[in-house]
Amino acid sequence: MSESRNATVLSLEKLANLLPSPLRPLHGKRAAPLDLPDNIICFCRCSATDLNRPQRGRALHHRFVLIFALETAVTVAVDDRAIRLHPNEGILVLPFQFHDYIQPEREELRWLFITFELIDIEALQTLRFRPFVITPFVRQTCAELVEAYLTRGEGDLTSLLLALLLQRIRQAEPIQRRHHKPAVSPGLIMQVNQLAQSREHPLSVKEIARSLGISASHLRARFRASCGVSLGRHLRRLRLEKACGLLRLSQRRVTEIAELCYFTSIYSFSRAFHTAYGVSPMAYRHGDRVRRTG
Q1: Which fold would CATH assign to domain 38-171?
Q2: Residue 245 CB partners (closer than 8 Å, separation 6+)
Q3: pLDDT tens-digit profile, the chain (294 residues)
Q4: In whole angstroms, how far apart are CA 196 and each of 62, 64, 85, 156, 210?
Q5: Domains of the chain: which residue ranges?
Q6: Among 61, 245, 163, which Cα is nearest to 155's?
């Protein structure tokens, strides 16, 4: 039943009266194979400044980011599109989509974020670039999810409620709104991210600088000044974040992932991965806790 046709919930008694009375109640609806969201994190941002913090978190990511604008309008720049989110609206950012936040209506806000991993990425492709209204059903399911998230020992319930929430969002009617290119040009880190991920082979610092119309030395200095980390280290982190996604969301061998992420050997890949996250690639694949470093 879609939400547009079910504005008011019928009572359980009325719904029960609509059910048939079969003579042989042995065959019913069968469940499709269920791929549940995993590694769920919920958090809230209360100021526009905090939306773009930390800077390093604006690099490539391999997680889904479900955003609920509860108070205050802000534009979400996703890849090359700018999508204005008003209060009581939301959007899902898919893995490996660059996103940033611009043009806040005011500094004070309340935005809820739910980030998670899901093996079957294709199941949510219909929500790409598709803002949605936070309907009463979506809001109620989201509230139950956050309550379960805040309750110790309710990880399974949190995962089930998020799966239900995503289904509610898929059923909700999309907002018909034209997307446009951001009026504000993307910051340096976003420009570097887009260039670094737009080619089949990794670009060198000189090639990135040439694309931006500046010298390599000037690019390195500007990047460190604005982002607080060296450009080389940031580019390596992009490759490692891509590796994280492949480890979690694919069945590829570790040696193949190392090659896809442009590491010269499995040994250099394993060493860089352990330095960045505190665990080996195989331990990360099997769900061990990571230690994030700068």
Answers
A1: Jelly Rolls (2.60.120)
A2: 62, 95, 96
A3: 444 444 455 688 888 888 887 776 667 777 666 778 988 999 999 999 888 765 544 445 678 999 999 999 999 988 778 899 999 999 999 887 778 888 899 999 999 999 998 877 778 888 989 999 999 999 999 999 999 999 988 889 999 999 999 999 998 878 876 566 655 555 677 778 777 776 667 788 888 888 888 888 888 888 887 666 788 888 888 888 888 888 877 788 999 999 988 898 999 999 999 998 888 999 888 875 555 444
A4: 16, 21, 28, 37, 13
A5: 38-171, 187-228, 231-294
A6: 163
Helix 266-277 × helix 231-249 angle, to 10°: 100
Read off the tokens for 175. 């907002």
Contact 114, 245 (CB under 8 A): no
How far is the C-alpha of 219 from the C-alpha of 210, rounded, in Å? Answer: 10
Q: Which CATH class for the 231-294 domain?
A: mainly alpha
Burial class (CB in 10 A: 0-12, 13-18, 19+), 127: buried
3-state secondary structure of 229: coil
**Contact call for residues 104 and 74 (beta carbons, < 8 A):** yes
Single out the residue of 239, 223, 241 nearest to residue 231, CA to CA.
223
Dig out the tokens for 89 from the structure.
Answer: 């609206």
Two domains, one topology: 38-171 and 231-294: no
Q: Compute the distance between CA of residue 96 and CA of residue 241 in angstroms, rounded to an integer.
A: 9
Q: Which amino acid is at 127?
A: L
Q: Is the dihedral of CA 60, 65, 71, 76 positive or negative?
A: positive
